[in-house]
Each structure stands twice: as C-alpha cells, then as structure tokens.
Amino acid sequence: MTTNKTPQSKHSMKNIDSNNHVQGKSIYVDDVPTVRGTLYACVFGSPIAHGVIKNLDTSKATEIEGVHSVLTYKDVPGENQIGGIIPDEPLLAEHHVHFQGQPIALVLAEDEKTAQAAVHHIQVDIDPLPIITNPREAHANGDIIGAVRTFTLGDTKTAFEKCKYIFEGKAESGGQEHLYLETQGAYAQPQENGNIRIISSTQGPTAVQRMTARMLGIPMHKIEIDVTRLGGGFGGKEDQATLWAALTAFGVYCTGRPVKYILHRLEDLKMTGKRHPYSSDYKIGLDENLKIIAFEAQYYQDAGASADLSPAILERTLFHCTNSYFIPNVLATAYSCRTNTPPNTAFRGFGGPQGMYVIEVAIDRAASEIGVSTIDIQRKNLLQEGSEFPYGQIVANCEAVSCWDDAISRYDLANIQAEIEDFNHKNVHLKKGLALMPICFGISFTNTQMNNARALVHVYSDGSVGVSTGAVEMGQGVNTKMLQVAAFMLGVNPERVKIETTNTTRVANTSPSAASATADLNGKAVKDACNQILARLQRIAADMLGVQPEDIILKDEIVFVNGKATDITWVQLVHKTFMRRENLSAKGHYATPKIHFDKTKEKGHPFAYHVYGTAITVATVDCIRGRYDFDCVKIVHDFGTSMNRIIDLGQTEGGLVQGIGWMTMEELLYNEEGRLLSNALSTYKIPDIYAVPKEIDVHFLNTDNSNLAIFKSKAVGEPPLMYGIGAYFAVRNAVKAFNPNTQMAFSAPITPEKVLMGLYDNKTV
Amino acid sequence: MIEFILNDKKITTQEVSGTTVLDFIRYHQHLTGTKIGCREGDCGACTVLVGRLEEGQLSYQSMTSCLMPLGNTHGKHIVTIEGLNMKELSPVQQAMVDEGGTQCGFCTVGFIVSLSGYTLSQSKPSYRDAIAAIDGNICRCTGYKSIERATENIVIGLKNKDLSDRITWLVERGYLPSYFKTITERLAALNKAISKKISSKEKDAIIVGGGTDLFVQKAEEMPQHTINHLFDEMYLNKIYEKDGKCYIGAACTAEDLRSSSIMNNIFLKMYEYAKLVSSTPIRNMGTIAGNFVNASPIGDLTIFFLALDATIILNNGITKRAIQLKDFYQGYKQLEKQKEEHIEQVYFEIPSKNNTYFNFEKVCKRTHLDIASVNSACLLEIKNGIIIKAHLSAGGIGPIPTYLIESSAFLLGKEVSPDLVRELNQVVQTEISPISDARGTKEYKRLLLRQLVYAHFLTFFPQKLNIHLVLE
Predict the structure, then answer these.
(1) Which end of chain A is flanked by fewer CB atoms within 10 Å, N or C?
(2) Residue range of the domain that includes A240
(3) How many domains, chain B?
C-alpha cells in the first residue's frame, strides 16, 4: 500500500467534454435541432393521489387549435406496461390512479405551449380512495411490494442475552429529489418500416428500448435508442427516463410524426420518483468492551405507488445494514411498502445510505446512553480482514481500519477535538460538533445477471478510433475513462480516439449506467475489444518485421520490438493491416467473474470488491437562529489506483455534497392528500455554493489489490455520498453541546427547523 | 418593436414584450447554449448578461433569462454564451476546464456567463465578489469545490485589470471577443434612434418591473398580456437624500440598494442584509415596488422597510398620494391600492447616527438563495437609556408582511434588559398567527420569531445580554 498527496488536478486527463461544456456546445436532448413536423407532448396527470377513474373527457382539449390529438391507454397498441422488475406500472392510467401526477392522457400539439395549455382543458372524474403516505401504515395494511427480505448472521436472540447494553429505537431518513439540472425528456422520430428512433436522456437505453417495444407490441430491433449525454442522472434516469421516452414513441406510433417531450421542472418534480424515505426500527447490543455483538433492524421503505426499482434498492439496504462494522449476530428485515406518492427510484447509493444511517444512529444512541464517545464504538467494531458480512461474503482486502487510522493521524483528530472543546467553552451562541463517518460500499449490481457489458471498437483505415459502449455519460466522466482505456490499450494518443454516442444498435442488451460499476464493466469490455484488435495488429507487425507477435508492443503510436522502437508508426501498421484485409473492428465482452448470490438463502459473494473510506466532519451551529455551516470535511478514501484523479476527486466532492444535502436541507414534504409541497426549486433546496463545507480535503489512499476494477481504479460514483451522513451527526453533536437535555429524534434531514427545535427542547439555563 | 443587440447582432423584433428572453434566444434565435433548468430563477442555468448605458458608461449585470421579459431588453446588450465564445477558450472557460469545474455540463454555461460578467465588474477583483457573482448558479454534480478553485484562478488572472478601460483590457487578454469594444458606441446610437418606450399604456396593461415574481406565478399568461414596462423608467430608478429623508425610486432593484452609497452609509451592514436576499441575478432584476406589491408575507425588502416605518407614494397617472407601508397591507395579497395606481417611490426618515439601532434577520432552509421561513427587522432609538422609538416587523408569521404594532408600542418608554426582551416576546406571540407550510411548522415559526427578536437585541446589546440571561 502506498499513499500520495491529493493530486494537483491539472495532472490528470481532463474530462473530454469540458471544452464543449464551457462553450455551451454540448448537445442535450432539447438542443437537438427539431425536424419539420415535430409535435410536442404534454402529460395530463392525475389531480388525485388515489382513486378510480369514473370518466375522462379529453374532447375540449382536442378541439383547441394546434392540438393534434389526445391519447389515452386505449390507444396503446401493445401492453400498457412499463414496470421493470414487477409489471405494476401502466404507461397511462386505465381505471385506477395511485399518485398525484400519474399520467392519464398525452396531449400532442404543434408547439410546446399549446400542449401545456391544452392539458388544463382535460377533465377527469375520480372516485377517491384512502390515501396512504406513510410506509408503516402501508405495512400495517399489508400493502407490500415483492418479497419481505431478511438477512441473518449468527443468532441475535442468544447474543442479546449476553449483551451488557441493549438499546432500541427508531430512525427516519427522508427522500431526496435528484434535481438533475436537465429535466427528463426524449425526442422520438419515425423511421421507415415503422421503426422508431428515440433520442433519450436515459441511464438505461436498453430498458427504454425493451419497455417501448413491449408497449408498442413490436420487436426490440424496431426501436433504436441513442444517448449523447445526460445533464445529470444520479439514478433518477435509470428507470424513470423510460416513461417519457416511451410516451414520445407512442406519439410517433399513433401520429407518424416526430414527437418531443421535455418536462417542465414543475412536472418533473411532481411526477417522478425520488430517493426512498425510510422509517426503521433498530435494536443494538454491546458487551462490556463496547463490541457490538447483536444488531436487529426492520426497514420500512416508502416505495411510492409502484415497484420501479424498489425491490432492488431494498436489497441494497440490507447489504449495507452494518456499514463498515463487523457484527457477528445480525437479523435485518426489510419491507417495501406501497404508498400514494410517485414511484420512488434509484438515487446514488441505491438504498445503501438509508441502511448505513440506521446503524450509525444505533451506535450514536448507544454511545450517548452509555456515556462514551461514538468514535470509540465505531473504531472498536470496524471490519477486519476475514470478517463475514451478513450476506456471507468474506471481507477481503479490507481498508476500513487503514482509512480510519490514517484519517485520525493525518488530520490530527485530537487537535480538532481540542479546538472544538475550546471553541465551545468560549462561545455561548455558537457551538461546534464533530462526527466521523466510515463507509464500506459493495461494488457490482446486486443482481448478478446485470454485471456484464460490451463494447464495439473500430479502428478506421486512417488510424483513428471509434469506441462504442453501453456506458452513458452523465457527468461522471465515464467517456473520458473509456477513452483512456482505449488509448492506453492501443498505444495511441487520446486525440485519435472518439467516444461514440450510446446506441442500442451498436451495443445491445446493456445494463444501465448505475451501481458505480459503469467504468469497470464497460472499461473491461473496451479492453477486451482492444486486445482482439491488438492481437491482429501484432501479428501483422511481426510479419512485417520478421519477429514473433509476442515481441511486439504498441506504444506512443510506434511499434516496439522487445522494448526497442521501430520506424513503423501506428498509422502505417493500421494501413498495412487494412490492406491485408484483416478485421480492424472488434466487439468486446465482459462479465464480472466470481460473483454470485443466492436469494433463497440470502447468502453469497455478490460484490466484486468493496470501497472504503472515512470522513471527519465539523459543523458550527448558530444557536440563536438554528442555522449551521460546515467548517470542514476531511476524507481518506480508498480509490484503488485512480486512473483519473481529477474525475475521481470531482466524484468524491460532488457525492459528499449531495449526501450532505440529503442529510441537512433537502426536505421532501407531501401533505395528507399526497400532494408534494416542496414542489419547486423555491421550496426544495439543494446546496448552493455558500452551503458547502468551507474546506473539503480528500486524501487518496492508493491501494493495489482491486483486480476487478478497471486498471485497479476503484469505482467512485456512489460511495462518497455516504460521507454526508457524518454531517447529520456533526450538527446534532453541536446542538447537544448547547443543549445536553435535547430529546431530538433521529430524523433526517436535520433542517434548520429541527435544529432550532432541538436547541430549545427541554432547554434549561 | 423591441430593439436590442444580442451578442454581436442587432435585433429588431415584433415579438410580444412578455415573451421571456430565454424562449426568445433558445427558440427564436436557436442559441441553445443557454439552458433551461427551472424557469423560476432558482438555478441560474439560463443566466445571460445584460449591458446598458448609463450616462455613457457601459455596465453589465447577470440576469436569469427565464424571468426576464423581452420588453426589458429594449435598448440593451444581451450576451449569451455564444456571444462570449472565441476561437480559444477565455481564461474563465479555461479555468473551469483545468479545475474540473464542469461535470454534466448543464449548469456550466450559467457559471461561465456569471463569471464572465464578473470579469466586467468595475470594482477591484476579489475572491469574495467573484463567488458572490455565482451565488445564483446551482450545480448538482461538483459540490462546488472545483468551481471555487477555478474562481480563485480567475481572480488571480484579473489582478492587474485596468479598471479605467476594462473592456479593452479584457478583449486584449482573450476574456471577451473584440466586438465588445464596439458596444458602447452601438448602444449609444441605438438608444438615440429608438423610441424610448415599448410599454403599453392601455388601461388593462399589466405593470411589470423586473418580472421576478410575475413570471414565476403567471408564467403561462404573461406572454398574452399587454405590459407596461416600468423597469427602465429613469424617474423610478433614483435613490437620493433630502431633508433627513431617503427617497428610493420604485424600480430600484435590490442590487441598487445593496450598492447604493447612501444606503451603505445609513446601514453599515447593508452588504450582509442584501446577501440574504435571493441571489445576484435576481437582485439585479427584482424591484423594491415589485416586492411591496407582490405582498408576499415574507418579502424581505418589505419587512426591511416596515421597520423603517417607510412611506410609499402611489401614482394613478393623474394624482399622487402617500401612504404608510404598514397601512398598505389589508389582508392576504390585498392592497390599499387602486387598480390604476402604481408605486412611484418609497421614503423613510434616516435614523440618527447615534443611539439608533437597526437590524434585519432572516432564516430559511438554505441561508442564501432561499425564501425566508421567518424574517424580521427592528429599529430602536434610545435616549438616556430609554427606548423612545421602536419599530418591529416580521414576515412568515401571518397572511401579510407584518408591522408588529403592539410589540413596537410595548417597547416605548422602557429600558433594555433581559426581562424586557422576554416580555417583548410574549407580546409578539399574541400578535402573530403563523401557519404550517413547506417553510416550516407553525410551532417552529413561533419559536423562530422569538429567536429573531432575541437576535435583534443580542446584536444591539452584546455586552448587556446573552441568550442565557434572556431565557432565564
């Protein structure tokens, strides 16, 4: 293991999109030039969160000048169904509606404003049914989606009998709006023979293709999905981009004209699902040495109105229910509960953060009841090499302790603590709080089948290279990493390589860009394709030089023999190979080896590897006003051997801040009617530039053993988000410094409201 | 006919004046670099620069094009990213590339435009001001740290900026395309040639200032209205002092207040107060009269001026009348104003330098670029230890922006003490009726106003008071 300082960002290859980004030349769906005859779509959504449709009258809307047609489920030619895991989500509502904003009809008009205005002229009569917005209530009613899942390790019942300390309680974490800056949208265009091409802002092109084909009752090959890039996804466009794309294709199918639909932000907020709120119960047991020996938890996931990805997200909550700790006896049960809000969906972390929050609550509670430092309990229970996860995988190449200890010494925790104590002693109206947050996040889709990818690499006869993969660029820099892989493998300059759009006709049957695994899976597929081409080039070069193919290396655009440069260039070799009628293209394939998981036993080896890290967070609370700031977040993160530090640093900082947002100011509020109250950017707040920690330090812990990561560069998309949980506890600890009597519940986000209520709850002078 | 310069191109359009600039540039001019993020001024993805001539001087401000009516471009220079691009990247663009300040790219253009606008600023370069220039730009990917690093580099690059001829300096160093050097002349010629007013004086014309509220609340219908644009009326844009009073034109923006030397002279913390009001591009657009007439129960400027016991002048086109701001609000969104009247001016008595205390407080979910859960302002004048003048206002605690009459009266003749502050809160609590909404529960709002009232006094008298003394 070696460690380096945080890199100068200039030393890494810059994101290949950045030049266009800063000039506004990058193309998103709404920037694609419109084709003559394009119709604009707008959805009429249910005004009521739960009920039975008695009557739907679209006649007035149809009569408006400029309105082409108004479509309903009756016009759907195939299966009126877009549910991915469970078929419980219609494209357009038939008889029941299950959430406010659920699409009922689709208006198509000659321009966007007419479409939007026409929606107001559609009338629906709905017989209301009881509205459920609380997952525990749904659970009590038996309204559960999919299977109840339970992970077990050891025997908690016996273990609790041996515990010196046992604490039980409740933990709540709120939902989170993705707030990708680019709203959902798609643009579908008719092709010949009834084929349809959809330009979609989706993380999952294959999902869009599959669902659209099923809904239209035509084979998948008649639907082409093309994705240039997304203006942010964060999971919100993994499954939920499908609806909008399918609607535009539906419009094309019915009218024969191109159809475009870019959601208004208010529509997007109202109609799309978010991170799942969770309400959980925990029971934690420790021995006299503060070892956690038993942990039980029940997770009530608020799934919203249909399954979407909820069952998979539920599963990941269980996978991360013990976070970075070894607990020998675990009994964790999770329920996906159906409520009358939009179907909640993937969001960076995918249920993992919700699970981790609960164990951190349990530890914090135990520490304050016992009267010891939370940090002591955390440190004593960190995962060790050879520990067993509740799902049976054995901990290997563990960096939990190394990250933690490095953070403590590198950032001089003792000094930070002394400064805080001194500050709190001197200040009446301001108090500081500190928290440590270790993370351990498993990399791979937990659905083993999805861990595969393909790539198509063309070397053109002039030596330029085109690379297609299943990876979708959404700001995470995956295209840059793919380019790095291809350029490195072929030994060419990066300028020679172009990353193509993600298109289902070039790379088929893909998994969505999700689970932090996109670069690993697609990168390894690119590597495979490049190796195939390389072998042919080596053969030709060997032939030209009269040596063995294995003596040939391509580097810096030159052919090397046994380490010595020849005068044959890349371009010459490619040309020669082309003239010899050799194949300069290759399709690469990769499927993660070694992973498996048996859902009947809830045991296996689901993850290729784990990512570790530790964050130290310091918050300052204004105890008069309930406002707070973050002084710093200091991180030691296990990047493996980072292949692009500028991108990986950006993912870490961005993920952290998103996690802080989830834990602090981002508050989704639904009223009893199932209406979203935080329904605009004026009422749903994400961090702005003043809200982020004044200082974020990221130390790259370099490790060299993650062979299943592309070039040993570990996946980085999701794990840093969970450092944000530390922000919750740092603020909470500052509140407790002002008011030790506070009884504030464990309920995230810790908004300024909760802070102020906590500061003056049972406050004595 | 609306006439302006868009980037390097003269525009003459018959388009209705209530079309948003955003729709005009993206869908009429096909300039797709400007992005649509929220259409309510809360994300900054659609930020453009607006240049105008004032007494021959060209100055630029950032504005969110989603809320800007096309009518407000008349006689101005509108700059989108396409008007900033050159063959090579500008130092602003290059800094963002070098530091990884862009990930998905969708917000990036807004940051580039805002920061480029900052390079055009007439004040000495500072990191604080450069960051303030992007306080209306939201990014969901980066966590802002890379953008901060880029901004640091940009500020370093501007160190030797020639403030006397900044446009030439910027053009010569590749910050701006060279056509910027021609804009002063072209705008002067344009303003000479065009009719000053594109406003409708029709009776049912809707009065629009900056548009920051109307284009959020009535986005769909605004393009259909005939509009009386008052934003650029010269007589509504002045701030001056006369006979111990400060007069502020109705179309003065929050930014005009922030940068006014008169206001800064009266209120030492003007910069801090203004920083709590929305964001730079919105402060560049939102007018004081707009804030008053909008009658939001949590209007920041309204609460501020209520505690100054300000007076407003209403004009119906024929006659004028004065009314106290606190009497202007009759009920939720109900004003003591005739349909044909518009606010022309607000004035207040300048508090004496000695023995007068003023403070403005605001708490929201996000400290900046947010709407208050509760806000409050307080003015006290003390003579011989006795309060002789008191005005206390609060927002978010009732249907109107509230002047707390009884609480203000309660303070008169009293001496400041922990007991007084505590008793004051008891009076305050009887005067308010908050409701629970997205900005907080009613219990929270009650507690929060108590705290803000305490905060006023803790700010005024830090030696005499602390929270523990007040709580006792």
Answers:
(1) C
(2) 35-130+178-271
(3) 3
Using a cut of 0.90, tell me whether the model's pTM lies above it.
Answer: yes
Residue from A296, A667, A718, A753 carrying the catalytic annotation: A718
Task: Round to whole Å and give the CA distance between A144 and A132.
Answer: 13
Neighboring chain B residues of A236 at a CB cutoff of 8 Å: none
Same domain, A83 and A228: yes
Same domain, B70 and B143: no
Q: For residue A712, is it left (φ>0), alpha (ψ between -120 and 50) or beta?
A: left
A707 and A683 in a single domain? The answer is: yes
Nearest by CB to residue A232, choosing from B106, B112, B220, is: B106
Within-domain flag for A4? no
Contacts of A515 (CB under 8 A, 6+ apart): A350, A443, A444, A445, A446, A450, A718
Question: Same domain, yes or no, for A630 and A733?
Answer: yes
Assembly ipTM:
0.97
> Residue A732 is which amino acid?
R
Burial of A741 (0-12, 13-18, 19+ CB in 10 A): exposed
State whether A214 and A337 are in the same domain.
no
Q: Does residue A258 lie within any of the structural domains?
A: yes
**A65 given a catalytic annotation:** no
Residue recorded with tokens 């599959």: A210
Is any Cβ of chain B less than 8 angstroms from the Cβ of A624? yes
Are A713 and A625 in the same domain?
Answer: yes
List, for residues B74-122, the tens digit of each pLDDT value.
Answer: 999 999 999 999 999 999 999 999 999 999 999 999 999 999 999 999 9
**How far, CA to CA in Å, does B124 sit from each of B52, B118, B160?**
20, 11, 9
Best probe of the A interface among B278, B366, B436, B454, by most A CBs < 10 A, is: B366
In a domain, A1, yes or no: no
Put simply, the answer to whether B35 touches A182 (Cβ < 8 Å) is: yes
Chain A residues lying within 8 Å of B37, measured CB to CB: 181-183, 265
Let me know: does A51 contact A124? Beta carbons within 8 Å. no
Closest partner residue to A21 (CB to CB) among B98, B108, B363 is: B108
- Given the structure tokens 């993992």, which residue do they identify? A352
User: Domain boundary at B198, B229, B260, which?
Assistant: B229
The C-alpha atoms of residue B292 and residue A617 are separated, in whole angstroms, by 42
Poorest-pLDDT segment among A496-510, B57-71, B207-221: B207-221
CATH of the domain at B244: 3.30.465.10
The three-class DSSP label of residue B349 is strand
A742 near B CB under 8 A: no
